[in-house]
Structures are given as C-alpha cells and as structure tokens.
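new request in #modeling-help
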Amino acid sequence: EAQVTQNPRYLITVTGKKLTVTCSQNMNHEYMSWYRQDPGLGLRQIYYSMNVEVTDKGDVPEGYKVSRKEKRNFPLILESPSPNQTSLYFCASSQTGGAPGELFFGEGSRLTVL
Amino acid sequence: GENVEQHPSTLSVQEGDSAVIKCTYSDSASNYFPWYKQELGKRPQLIIDIRSNVGEKKDQRIAVTLNKTAKHFSLHITETQPEDSAVYFCAVGRSNFGNEKLTFGTGTRLTIIP
C-alpha cells in the first residue's frame, strides 16, 4: 500500500529536550516536505527536499532541522523545542518533474512542548 | 511571495444544500489551484485541482471555478451530505515550480447539518 508514515503520532515533551519526528514514504517520490498546522493559520511549510541531499527552507524554518540521506526518509529534528512549536505536524511527498501535483500526506504528529 | 486568502473560515449548511468556499491570490503568474479535504483527525487529501488553461472543472458533486482576471477561485459542493463535513484547504502554485512553491489558505471548516 502506497503511504507516508510518520512517528511518533503523539508526543509530549519538555522545553529543550531534543526530539526527532521520522517520516518515510514507499512511493519512490523525489519531493518531500514538512508542514505545521495551527488553528487559523492553515498549513505552513517548514522545510522541503527536492531529492537526496537537497533540502531548503520553507516559510517557517526557525527552530527546525531536516536531513535527506535516503530517498524514502525525511526526518524533522527539533534541537531545543520550545512551547511555540506545539503543533500538528505533517510530512508529505510527491513526484517532481517541474510542475506541482498531488501531495500525499502522512497521518500527522501532534506535538506538545511543556 | 504569494498571499492566499480563504473565506469563510467556518460554514454551516443544511444537508442537501450547496456550499461555496472562495480563495483569492496575489501573484498573477500562479496557475495551479488544488483543493484538499481534511476530515476530523485525518490527513489532508486532494479532492480536485485546476490549472489555468481551464475555467471550470467538475467531479461528481464537486466543482472548482477559476477567474484569473480577478485572481480568485472557488470550490462548489452540491447536494451536500454528512460526509462532506471537514476542513477544506485551497492552495496556489505555479507550473514552472514544483510543490515547493505551493501556498495554502487558512482553511474552511464546513459542517453539514442533518
């Protein structure tokens, strides 16, 4: 089954404790990205990756890091989480080819930073 | 960058009636306009998209219309059913870029009243 898998789905942590949210896709997609969803603000892009070893900042990258060592994996790293990073996070992937197309989202990871 | 405004933020309609959600955008070069549906607790999923070489696209009870001159596009849902209750996001992109330049609206929570 084609899918994007995120872990953990739910996490409560404390300020300053490093955490990683994993994302894996089995569709051989080149493009992967991370979004955060907050009430009234919609989906905002954090980071994206056009291919292995190619990453770039989205609209709200502060406080986050990513890496793309393998095509299927795109982890999101919060080195020192703060309460304003409490949010619902979605990983997404798609084909590239120079034109926008359907994004396939993971099930989401709800993060609470105390 | 692109600025996308989505209205209304909440919408309640009687079952069987029609629902319309509107998005405006700022960049006249934008030419890709998808709509995503997010059911409660689920991931966003693409329901319909339109590219600027057409003014309208239909898929059963849903349709999207585009007015490039006025820079707005709308989602129309006819004969609404309880399963249409969800949050709907519009997005705007450009065909000479991939999904890295996709900008989402802030979402509309649609409630269908039985």
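bot summary: Chain A touches chain B at residues 31, 33, 35, 40-45, 48, 50, 56, 58-59, 90, 92, 94, 96-103, 105-108 (CB under 8 Å).
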